[in-house]
């Protein structure tokens, strides 16, 4: 009976650990998604500025567009390493969450096997 209780307790702990790992994964994914969205907005603004400068043809607008393009390149240069770090964190969190889920699944199966064995033993005693 002690082994069954131990397995059950471990299964509960594994569930808590899995929940914690999933929250870390969600947080990492949200941070990564925010950075991806910021890069997408910069790409859209860059394309819009290029199109406006092409249509207008004004030297003043061309100059402003060049400065804006420089700013966008600098901003992307700052965001790309951030995205790389966030992606690495997200990949590690995903692997840790998968491991935690696997542990929980195994312990749940062991606990279910223990319950089934206890039930078989009770049934066998009643049939004697």
Automatic annotation (TrEMBL):
It comes from the Bacteria. This is Flagellar FliJ protein.
